[in-house]
Amino acid sequence: MRALRELYPAARFSGIGGVEMEQLGCDSLAPMERLSVMGLVEPLGRLPELLRIKRNLERFFLKTRPTAFIGIDSPDFNLRLAANLHKGGIRTIHYVSPSIWAWRGGRIRGIAESIDLMLTLFPFEIDIYREHNVRVHCVGHPLADAISLEDSREQSRRELSLDPAATVIALMPGSRKSEITRLAPIFLAAAAAAREKHPDLRFLIPCSGVENRRLLEKIIAQGGFAGFESSLLDQSHQAISAADFVILASGTASLEAMLLRRPMVVCYKLAPLSYALASRIVKVDHMAIPNLLASERLVPEYVQKEVNKENLLNEIERFMANPVPGEELLEKFAEQHRFLRRNASEQAANAIHELLIG
Fold it and tell me: In which domain, by residue range, is 121 found?
């Protein structure tokens, strides 16, 4: 939005946005958190609400006729909305490619018919769109622009009043309620067991929003971890930066940890039925973003039943035995950081501008 305003100072924005977008003047027509649902089966319970929001947005945009519709992520929602708006003569852009290179590749045909411009975060996503004559531009990742190439561990520890010499582990069980419910008890059990062997270990748990904080506090209390010392923080960036090691849910957090150059363990755990369906159609060798980018297993990743207390405790013990990350790993992280640093917002705004004037 900021970059587009540089090109179009009088631009107005309507749709679905969070707090920062609203502060920049976006007229948010529905709460953004209502779209935050993960898995193949879980969205079914929210389907009537999601369809109602989609219909309302569709009617609004077809009536107000915006210059362009920009769907940001949430492909199952935004691409369906874009298809109908495209038929209605509205220019359509999608920002953040769905994982068609990993599963449900047949979606490319629908995308080709309904999207005028695809903006991707990662270079390896471009080829499939070019093969199907979809206009595409890789903009890099905004996080790579926002995160400094310099290490900020000392500053983050000062801000959190952490001992510079302490060994700190960040636990990041996700930002969605379903993720937290599945992963937090396992992460905490492994952390508590590690703390028994290493009493000086410190743990940080970032959480976004009041509801997630309450959920984590409830899990800590009900799981018998009430006496287990840990700090709940609002900022994931600060927690990762201050940490020596990170245990996290698969997703953007693994990219953030890579950009901050922290060794990590990546965990992926869906509801059983969702995983049973996904495992039949997913066709990638890696789940973790650092591994996908490098096309090799840079960091450990555990999937479904592998996500258990014993495996995570073993990873913590492995880290404690050799807490200094290898220079080769850190250099590969830094190389990917430099590769993804492309002024994403400006590139996205310029690509949209080229589409609109073309």
Answer: 2-140+342-357
